[in-house]
Design brief:
Blueprint: H1 2-24, H2 31-62, H3 67-85, H4 100-118, H5 128-153, H6 158-178
């Protein structure tokens, strides 16, 4: 269960970073944006790993002997991508107005990684529905809080959160292969 919590925190860092960026642009009370951010990011981060898990069950059945290596490679690629993106400008810099359509697109973009990470849930001894629920609730909390962090302090924490999430995903991937 500890692995799921760590995975949930690592996966939520992408949405947390975007929420900080959105919050930093917020001029008035950020409560509505925080709720919207938490809902969209939390829902998609919960749904996508479940899709990845269901797809992974079929695929890992064929390559069972190599499943830990495939899971490691996926997590290392996702983590590496997050580390790389932590040094780049965030997409939220180009957003003029936060609408439901914008939030939907951001939620999909940040949760694609979670779908790939969902493949690794087949290797953990945990109920996948519980794991996805934990990932969704964790992402909701981080996204909700991220808007307030950005509103109060600007974007200085944005890239650090994404970097931390990427490093943790790489470490989880290596742990799957080593232990």
């Amino acid at each position: 269960m500890l692995e799921v919590i760590i995975l949930a925190i690592a996966l939520s860092m992408d949405a947390f970073a975007v929420s900080i960026g959105l919050g930093s642009k917020q001029k008035t009370s950020p409560l509505a944006l925080a709720r919207m951010s938490g809902f969209y990011f939390g829902a998609f981060q919960a749904l996508m790993p479940l899709i990845g898990y269901l797809g992974g069950r079929g695929i890992f059945g064929w390559i069972e002997a190599f499943a830990p290596w495939v899971a490691c490679a996926l997590l290392c690629l996702i983590g590496g991508k997050m580390i790389y993106e932590s040094f780049a400008e965030g997409i939220e810099e180009d957003i003029q107005q936060v609408t439901h359509r914008v939030m939907l697109m951001l939620a999909i973009a940040t949760s694609i990684d979670a779908m790939a990470a969902g493949f690794t849930l087949t290797l953990l001894t945990v109920d996948p529905f519980l794991a996805c629920f934990i990932i969704g609730v964790t992402t909701f909390a981080f996204s909700f809080a991220g808007v307030f962090v950005g509103w109060k302090s600007g974007t200085w924490l944005e890239s650090k959160a994404e970097l931390l999430g990427g490093v943790v995903l790489v470490l989880i991937g290596l742990k799957i292969v080593i232990f």
